[in-house]
From TrEMBL, chain A:
This is Transcriptional regulator, ArsR family. SMART domains: HTH_ARSR. Residues 1-88 form the HTH arsR-type domain. Signal peptide: none annotated. It comes from the Bacteria. Pfam families: HTH_20. PROSITE patterns: HTH_ARSR_2 (PS50987).
UniProtKB/TrEMBL annotation, chain B:
InterPro entries: ASHA1/2-like_C (IPR013538), START-like_dom_sf (IPR023393). This is Uncharacterized conserved protein YndB, AHSA1/START domain. Pfam families: AHSA1. Signal peptide: none annotated. Residues 30-162 form the Activator of Hsp90 ATPase homologue 1/2-like C-terminal domain. Belongs to the AHA1 family. It comes from the Bacteria. It comes from Pontibacter akesuensis.
Length: 106, 169
C-alpha cells in the first residue's frame, strides 16, 4: 500500500499525534494517555505514520520513542505553495484586465 | 506585472479555512463586475495556461455559475458555484463544487463555501475571500485534480516547525 504525507494528516487522531510529537519524542504509552481510544488504535496510527515516513522510531533502552521527520512536513508546505501560486497568477491576470480597461477609457 | 498591492494567503487549520486577501488598483464597481460577470471571469479565473469557459451564469441568489477549466490539451474540468446570498457591491456567498458538463454537482468530491467581500480603499479595492472546506479526507483526489480549488489542512504547528527549521539551517 502506498502511503504519503497527505494520508498521514488526513486523520484527526494522527494530526493530534503529530502535534504532540512535534514538541518532543514520545513513547506509545505516553501518547496513548492523551487519547480516549485504545492503545492498539494509537499504535495502528503510529504504524501508518511510520509507513508515511513522517515519523521515525528510536530505541532507547527498553522504550521506543517516536519522533517527527520535520523535513517530510515540507511536502505539505510545498503543496500549499502551489495553491497559493494559483491565486497569485489569477490575480495578476485580473490586474492586467483592469489596466487594459483603464487605458481604453477616453 | 510587478506591483505592491497587498496579497495575503493564509490557512486556518482549526477552522478548515483559507483566507485570500488581495487589493486591486481599480474602483469597486469594476472589481465587483470582475467577480460577478462571466465575460470578465472567463478572462482571469483560470491560471495560465488554462482558460475558464462559462457555460451558463445566473448571478442572483439561488442562481449559479457553471463553467469549465479548459487545459492546454483541451481537457475540461467542470465546476458549479451556487450563489446563496448577494449583497450588491459588498459581498456574496456561494457553494463551489466539482460538476459534470451538465452542471450536476459531484458530491463525492470536496465542496467549499465562499464568502467574498469587497471594501473600497480610495483608488483601491480590497477583496477578502474566505473559503471554508467541510471535507479534508479527500486530499489525494484534490491534488490529482491539480488546478482545482481544494485544500488540505496542514497540521497544527507546521508553520512554527518550518520556521524553526529555517533558523537551524
Amino acid at each position: 500500500m502506498r502511503r504519503d504525507v497527505f494520508q498521514a494528516i488526513a486523520d484527526p487522531t494522527r494530526r493530534a499525534i503529530i502535534g504532540l510529537i512535534a514538541l518532543q519524542a514520545m513513547t506509545p504509552n505516553a501518547l496513548a494517555e492523551h487519547f480516549d481510544t485504545s492503545r492498539q488504535a494509537v499504535s495502528k496510527h503510529l504504524q501508518i505514520l511510520v509507513e508515511c515516513q513522517l515519523v521515525k522510531q528510536e530505541q532507547q533502552g527498553r522504550e521506543i520513542y517516536y519522533q517527527l521527520e520535520v523535513a517530510k512536513m515540507k511536502e505539505i508546505d510545498n503543496w500549499l505553495e502551489q495553491f497559493r501560486k494559483i491565486w497569485e497568477d489569477r490575480f495578476n491576470q485580473l490586474d492586467t484586465i483592469f489596466s487594459t480597461i483603464k487605458q481604453n477609457k477616453p | 506585472m510587478k506591483n505592491d498591492l497587498a496579497f495575503e494567503f493564509s490557512v486556518n487549520k482549526e477552522n478548515k479555512t483559507i483566507t485570500v486577501k488581495r487589493e486591486f488598483a481599480a474602483e469597486l464597481p469594476l472589481v465587483w463586475d470582475a467577480y460577478t460577470k462571466s465575460e470578465v471571469l472567463d478572462q482571469w479565473w483560470a491560471p495560465e495556461p488554462w482558460k475558464a469557459r462559462t457555460k451558463t451564469m445566473d448571478f442572483r441568489e439561488g442562481g449559479h455559475w457553471h463553467y469549465a477549466m479548459v487545459g492546454p490539451e483541451g481537457e475540461e474540468h467542470w465546476a458549479v458555484a451556487n450563489y446563496k446570498t448577494i449583497d450588491p457591491k459588498k459581498r456574496f456567498t456561494a457553494l463551489d463544487g466539482f460538476a459534470d458538463a451538465e452542471g450536476v454537482v459531484n458530491t463525492e468530491m470536496p465542496q467549499s463555501k465562499w464568502e467574498v467581500s469587497f471594501t473600497p480603499k480610495e483608488e483601491l479595492t480590497l477583496v477578502e475571500n474566505l473559503i471554508t472546506f467541510d471535507d479534508l479526507a479527500q486530499l489525494e483526489t484534490t491534488i490529482q485534480m491539480g488546478f482545482k480549488e481544494g485544500l488540505t489542512m496542514a497540521m497544527e504547528g507546521l508553520d512554527a516547525l518550518l520556521a524553526a527549521q529555517k533558523q537551524e539551517a
